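Incident log, support desk, overnight shift.

02:14 A customer reports that sequence design results differ from what the structure should imply. Their input is reproduced verbatim below. On-call engineer (initials T.W.) acknowledged and began investigating.
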């Protein structure tokens, strides 16, 4: 049986072509040249592989030895031998980062991860560039937007890059973009379960079920992670947050208390103080309030974090519960004052309590002392401004100045705008009064005193029609006995 003929090979075809077109000696030289060329190609190709392996070996050895100069030389050589390998260039960029040669690092990374074309680029390079942009202490919105673009490209190029997804989730959480962050947070729960807690905290007021689902998703991996890293402050706080969001305040307090005793920090102090304030609220909100437990928590809270606004707010609530509790809270406040602890907040509380009892002289005194202690508290500014403009002896000029401070610090607060508007009215500054009072009316709801003041201002401005409309509203609401918005704001509200 004869063998099937599969046709001439490449070498045979080349030989026949040469022999048919040239003299025999020339054909022989051509064949030899062809063979030598093929050998050279094979040699240099093999040589390149050998060179690559040689420098990779030296690179690993240099890394083990920590020899930075040899690491750089090896990477330099590999970049020449394999210029299209993105991982080599990325490793070189990391080396530049470690040496704080940031300009060189960024130049390499931007070549690997461009934003100005359709290609995805190298996902690790996108991630590193994003991290560098997010580290900017100024929180420049342009840089943050660029970082988001890098992270989006990293994810599009490699959907399995969980680090990029986690970083993008953090940026969205920083921007309070809860719904946009949700799919990324859920995707990286195995890597960063603490992000679920951050998102749950943002959603708890509006989306209860989604909050519970997130806590359920994060709880097990978080507790497992905490067992592995028992002194990690971020994990401790995240697990405590889960307990607080589930209403298990004692469990959260125990965890934070142990951590704070082991390694005191201002963040843990604040978290523990806030948890104790939540326990105070729970004690007060029982059908039969537990005053003993409440007062014990007040004492503990003041030892841990005496300037915590939530603790002070709970104390202000305690002042209204009854004589015994009132006396006990007042005693604690006077003790704080005698020690010089947060005098601004203590005077604010005492002023609020005096206002509630109708002791206008004491209220004005405490608000003024609170302002002297800390003129940067907007609630103090607002309360003192109201007293200066409404109680004898009046000082409208100073009242307006201090009221303007409160508005500058918190321009969206309608109570502060109403106070300033009423002072403008007393000074005969009708336009300014209308601007502030209309803002207050829009955001505070129907208030007879505001309608009455607007009626006066419009009448003085010569607009009898609007003056009549506001006067009618004021009369109507007075007849309905609608509650008047409180002039003096409670601390922490």
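02:41 Re-run completed on a clean worker. Output:
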């Amino acid at each position: 049986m004869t063998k099937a003929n599969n046709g001439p090979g490449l070498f045979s075809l080349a030989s026949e072509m040469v022999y048919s077109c040239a003299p025999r000696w020339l054909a022989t030289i051509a064949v030899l040249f062809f063979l030598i060329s093929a050998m050279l190609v094979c040699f240099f190709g093999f040589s390149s592989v050998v060179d690559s392996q040689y420098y990779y070996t030296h690179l690993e050895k240099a890394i083990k030895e920590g020899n930075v100069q040899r690491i750089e030389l090896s990477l330099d050589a590999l970049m020449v031998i394999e210029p299209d390998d993105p991982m080599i260039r990325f490793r070189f960029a990391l080396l530049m980062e470690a040496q704080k040669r940031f300009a060189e690092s960024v130049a390499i990374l931007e070549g690997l991860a461009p934003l100005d074309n359709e290609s995805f680029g190298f996902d690790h390079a996108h991630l590193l560039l994003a991290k560098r942009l997010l580290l900017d202490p100024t929180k420049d919105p342009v840089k943050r937007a660029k970082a988001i673009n890098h992270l989006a490209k990293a994810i599009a190029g490699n959907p399995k890059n969980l680090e990029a997804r986690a970083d993008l989730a953090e940026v969205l959480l920083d921007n309070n973009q809860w719904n946009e962050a949700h799919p990324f947070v859920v995707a990286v729960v195995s890597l960063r379960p603490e992000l679920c807690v951050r998102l749950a905290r943002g959603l708890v007021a509006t989306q209860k079920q989604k909050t519970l689902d997130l806590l359920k998703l994060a709880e097990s991996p978080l507790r497992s992670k905490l067992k592995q890293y028992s002194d990690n402050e971020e994990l401790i706080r995240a697990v405590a947050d889960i307990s607080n969001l589930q209403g298990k305040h004692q469990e959260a307090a125990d965890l934070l208390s142990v951590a704070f005793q082991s390694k005191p920090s201002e963040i843990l102090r604040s978290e523990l103080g806030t948890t104790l304030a939540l326990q105070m609220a729970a004690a007060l909100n029982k059908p039969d309030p537990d005053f003993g437990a409440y007062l014990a928590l007040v004492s503990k809270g003041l030892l841990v974090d005496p300037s915590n606004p939530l603790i002070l707010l709970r104390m202000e609530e305690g002042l209204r519960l009854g004589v015994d509790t009132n006396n006990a809270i007042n005693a604690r406040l006077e003790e704080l004052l005698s020690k010089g602890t947060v005098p601004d907040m203590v005077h604010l509380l005492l002023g609020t309590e005096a206002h509630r009892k109708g002791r206008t002289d004491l209220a004005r005194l405490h608000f003024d002392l609170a302002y002297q202690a800390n003129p940067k508290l907007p609630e103090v500014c607002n309360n003192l401004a109201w007293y200066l403009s409404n109680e004898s002896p009046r000082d409208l000029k100073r009242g307006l100045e201090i009221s303007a401070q409160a508005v500058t610090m918190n321009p969206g607060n309608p109570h502060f705008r109403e106070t300033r508007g009423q002072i403008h009215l007393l000074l005969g500054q009708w336009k300014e009064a209308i601007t502030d009072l209309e803002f207050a009316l829009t955001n505070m709801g129907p208030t007879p005193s505001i309608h009455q003041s607007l009626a006066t201002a419009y009448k003085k401005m010569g607009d009898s029609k609007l003056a009549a409309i506001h006067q009618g509203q004021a009369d109507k609401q007075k007849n309905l006995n609608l509650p008047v918005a409180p002039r003096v704001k409670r601390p922490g509200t």
